[in-house]
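Submission sheet (multi-component)
Chains listed below:
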Amino acid sequence: MDDKFILRTEGLGKTYGNGPERTIALDSVSLKIARGKLLALYGPSGSGKTTLLFLLGGLDKPTSGKIYFNGVEVTSMNERRLSRLRRNAIGFVFQNYNLVDELTVLENVMLTMMFEGKPGAERRDRAEELLRRVGIAGKERRRPSQLSAGEQQRVAVARAVANRPELVLMDEPTGNLDQENSQQLMRLVTEMVQGEGTTCVVATHNLEIVNEAPSKVVLKSGRIVSS
Amino acid sequence: MIGLAALILTYVSVQSLVSTLEINIAGSVSSLGGEIDVWAKGASYPLISKINESYAGVIKSIHGVALAAPITLAPLTIDSNEAVVAGIVPDQLPALLNYTMLAGTMITSNQSGILSIGKLLSATVVKHAGQTVLLNGANYSISGVYQTNSWLDYSVIIPHIVAQRMIGLQGGTSMIVVITKDPRSIDNVIGEIRALLPGVDAFRRTDAPSNISPILASLEAITTDIVAIVTLAAVLGIMNSNLNNLRERMRAFAIFKATGASSSQIIRLVLYESLLIGALGTLLGLGVSYTVLKSVSIPVVQTINVSVILVPSTFIYATILGLSVSFVAALYPALRIAKVRPQEVFRFG
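Outcome: structure written.
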């Protein structure tokens, strides 16, 4: 195993449907993601960015190919091991935040730690610290719907890093944000990568992010066209 | 929650009504003392049994019989309450019953207008030794208050002859209670009674409740059927409600899964939630049942209305039933929601 790379895929493919309605979302995608770096995954809508992120995060199973996380094959893992992986090693940030509106902001951030079984006091302290870091201090008791879009996305980032994952996957994190909020969020992500050595994969069609990312992969019609 | 409360109300009501009937009917046949009960053949319980009083003399003449006491039972009004009145020959009382006089004396003669009252009934009508009560519309003086620790504590004892006149049973009696000289001869005596008096049924006192068991068994079978049907309906209704509720919260569960919740954690989450709601529903049902049943009375025999007896075990079983229904009704929805695929929910909503 090459320790330099946290994630590696080999001939990754994903198709939806059968017969004439068969859609190829990803076609033989092989890539290596360097540890502790920010990788921008660029491509137009429908290019397979989200599908690739879901596969990398163990949320979906590929039709073909393999994924290795820290040298361990993810594609053959059962649901139980995948859950543990998502809980401990991978964080997700979604375009539409995917915060649970029935829970408070603080509870949303504590979610992964709760599933990990961390003690109440520890997860509360960690969640409060993260919310301070992302600038949401004082709004812990609010519901996500009571926050602005930028604030919700920062809460989502706090939730994604709560369990100190090695890898954070972000699907169009700035897709619903204005320029100021986008820049603020990306500064946060950069700090995270540099400060904690977290690997970030950001799927985006925001060229500004792509240009600032140290490494990038361009997807088109489910294939890597440049990296 | 409301559905579960309704189930608990149904269960507690039905069970309590049956318990009340069982305790009142079975109690009235099983605690009169003696060794052998003699009832009219085919009578389900002594309140509807009528036999000739002269049979007591016939039975007394059987070898080995120490006492053959005619007893007349009737549901009558005492002040504004209703209770079973026991007509017993005063001389035979000490041999028949184990009682303690709490105040005054037990009836000692066939004099009309005097009665002894049980402790519980005395407390209910708030009348004590030396005072008068209205028995079936006539004034009776209370000679004393007794305690037997049986159903007789919610009853009055009057002379047998007075009871016969009062209910128009001259020359007749509800039952005859027999005591043998030697308990080993009980079966022989029963055999002789049956041979001598084909119109009556004789059996050990301890077998008396089983004599009415066909009625109670039918009642219990009906109760069981009702509870089973209502429980099934509750399980299906609550399960459907759970499925709809979880479907509406599919996104939240998809998020849980995406953030690392395992299937078993999601199942546990749903079951805990369901049990919590179930516990609240059960509590509500128990409260409503207690309040409602405490305020109603039911006719046990003819015109006798008694308060519903609330047996603690019914409430314990109701709690177990409520929690079990909550658990079972949540199991299938929990298993289904645990299979949620976040990628599909996030993509297609």
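Remark: Chain A has seven helices and ten strands.
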